């Protein structure tokens, strides 16, 4: 075997082991008995130690120096392996294993604290996680500590670029949101009980409509919905409130967007560095366009309204147009994952600013709740009423995902660009969505973006699919047109 073939064979085993580690994480959030938390933490740490040893194996450096790629995909694979090798060799094996052990434990501690509205039960653990993430950032950084962590989720992106993006989004978002909340025309609220089993059946119908391959996936329940896996095993989760069916329906569609990206990648890339989504921003572009531009469109909500009447009977909304307005209702709620399209990015901006301060050391975990509540009151006009509505609502910091949050808004921006390009290329999208058929849209996304996996850099992935460089304008134009129509502005 030549150096390239040897390297790719070694990498294939590393990718397979990483898939096993991901399956352990899925099991922990869905099936694992609560009493197994400490054992799982040790298992996760042991597996991370093996993975870290493989990712820093000196043979990688030798293979990379000698390997000649046969094609462009091979060149890109070499670049990604080299990037991983260079980053991982800066992180001590002790730190990698301790992070895996602690964040596995912290996830359960966070869930208990959230359920019991007991932040004091979580803050000592968060302090430990934060110390390890600061240590990791110091190992990786060539400048800004936060940028070193952000690069894990959005390679090539900096906090300065994220800040500029937020500055471009915020003024028009805030102005539109204020106009909407002050409009005379306001959608009604639904007051009805939607049985859990029926919601789950409808969620599966919606997942099928958006192209989720059930032979390579499954739907389970989780405290915080997520998608896990790649290739031929991509699993999704959702959550259910019997008074709010849209929580379940749109959490499911959102995770289907992530899952279909992974299921849609060229199978030849399986167990290679190209066999997963290229970045979290690009990944989020898929979940957000599935959920919002497609799933909350007037065309699809018209179809969804009919399905809900069939399944739940008369739930107080007989008009599809009124139903569309309810689905897209703008409110001043506390929860990011349940927020409307106008409020969502403000939730992300808050987290971005706070986590930058946490990593920089200008904010400590002990002061986080107070800082969160003060910032939320500034942005939304009122403070959270309990910790689960505030800084305890998200799982991310408990599992060490510092630098992850801004990719959500970056994904929204990318989704706006993709929606513009999609509708220009496939003008009959809405006619199909009105029949519960998302395949013209999802087929275009699969062909132009999803199947390429990690073949291109994140920004290049979006630009190639759209035919133009990504900007905030398509997203803002879409939001202004949509919500002006709904609220009669």
UniProtKB/TrEMBL annotation:
The answer, when asked if Flavoprotein is one of the entry's keywords, is: no
State the active site: 255
Pfam families in alphabetical order: Peptidase_M32 (PF02074)
UniProt-listed CDD domains: M32_Taq
The protein's required cofactors: Zn(2+)
Q: Can you tell me which residues bind Zn(2+)?
A: 254, 258, 284
Gene Ontology biological process terms from the UniProt entry:
proteolysis
Q: Is Cytoplasm one of the keywords?
A: no
What the entry lists under InterPro entries is as follows:
Peptidase_M32_Taq (IPR001333)
Its EC top class is: hydrolase
Q: Which UniProt keywords apply?
A: Carboxypeptidase, Hydrolase, Metal-binding, Metalloprotease, Protease, Zinc
Which reaction equation describes what this protein catalyses? Release of a C-terminal amino acid with broad specificity, except for -Pro
Which GO molecular function terms does the record list?
metal ion binding; metallocarboxypeptidase activity
Matching entries from Gene3D superfamilies are given as: 1.10.1370.30
Relay the cofactor remark from the entry. Binds 1 zinc ion per subunit.
Q: What is its EC number?
A: 3.4.17.19
**PANTHER family from the xrefs?**
CARBOXYPEPTIDASE 1 (PTHR34217:SF1), METAL-DEPENDENT CARBOXYPEPTIDASE (PTHR34217)
The family this protein is said to belong to: Belongs to the peptidase M32 family.
Explain the purpose of this protein: Broad specificity carboxypetidase that releases amino acids sequentially from the C-terminus, including neutral, aromatic, polar and basic residues.
This one is known as: Metal-dependent carboxypeptidase
Taxonomy of origin reads: Bacteria, Pseudomonadati, Pseudomonadota, Alphaproteobacteria, Rhodobacterales
């Amino acid at each position: 075997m030549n150096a390239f073939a040897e390297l790719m064979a070694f990498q294939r085993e590393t990718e397979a082991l990483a898939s096993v580690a991901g399956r352990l994480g899925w099991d922990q959030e869905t099936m694992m008995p609560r009493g197994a938390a400490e054992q799982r933490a040790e298992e996760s740490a042991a597996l991370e130690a093996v993975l870290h040893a493989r990712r820093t194996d000196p043979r990688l450096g030798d293979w990379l120096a000698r390997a000649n790629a046969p094609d462009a995909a091979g060149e890109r694979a070499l670049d990604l392996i080299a990037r991983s090798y260079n980053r991982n060799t800066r992180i001590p094996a002790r730190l990698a294993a301790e992070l895996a052990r602690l964040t596995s434990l912290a996830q359960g501690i966070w869930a208990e604290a959230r359920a019991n509205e007991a932040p004091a039960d979580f803050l000592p653990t968060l302090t430990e996680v934060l110390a390890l993430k600061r240590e990791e950032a110091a190992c990786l950084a060539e400048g800004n500590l936060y940028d070193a962590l952000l690069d894990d989720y959005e390679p090539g992106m900096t906090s300065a670029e994220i800040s500029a993006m937020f500055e471009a989004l915020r003024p028009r978002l805030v102005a539109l949101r204020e106009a909407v909340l002050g409009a005379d025309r306001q959608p009604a609220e639904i007051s009805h009980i939607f049985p859990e089993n029926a919601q789950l059946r409808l969620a599966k119908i919606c997942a099928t409509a958006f192209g989720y391959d059930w032979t390579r996936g499954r739907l389970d329940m989780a405290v915080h919905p997520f998608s896990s896996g790649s290739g031929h095993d991509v699993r999704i989760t959702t959550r259910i409130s019997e008074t709010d069916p849209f929580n379940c329906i749109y959490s499911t569609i959102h995770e289907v967007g992530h899952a279909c990206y992974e299921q849609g990648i060229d199978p030849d890339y399986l167990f290679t560095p190209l066999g997963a989504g290229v970045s979290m921003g690009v990944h989020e572009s898929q979940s957000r366009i599935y959920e919002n531009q497609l799933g909350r469109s007037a065309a699809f909500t018209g179809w969804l309204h009919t399905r809900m009447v069939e399944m739940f009977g008369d739930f107080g909304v007989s008009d599809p147009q009124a139903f569309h307005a309810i689905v897209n209702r703008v409110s001043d709620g506390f929860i990011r994952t349940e927020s409307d399209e106008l409020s969502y990015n403000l939730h992300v901006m808050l987290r971005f600013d706070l986590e930058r301060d946490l990593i920089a050391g200008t904010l400590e975990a002990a002061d986080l709740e107070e800082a969160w509540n003060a910032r939320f009151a500034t942005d939304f006009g009122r403070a959270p009423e309990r910790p689960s509505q505030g800084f305890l609502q998200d799982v991310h910091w408990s599992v060490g995902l510092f630098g992850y949050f801004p990719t959500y808004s970056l994904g929204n921006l990318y989704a706006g660009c993709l929606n513009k390009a999609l509708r220009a290329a496939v003008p009959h999208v809405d006619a199909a969505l009105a029949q519960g058929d998302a395949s013209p849209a999802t087929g275009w996304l699969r062909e132009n973006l999803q199947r390429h996996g990690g073949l291109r850099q994140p920004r290049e992935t979006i630009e190639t699919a759209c035919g133009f460089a990504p900007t905030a304008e398509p997203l803002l134009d879409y939001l202004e047109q949509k919500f002006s129509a709904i609220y009669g502005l």
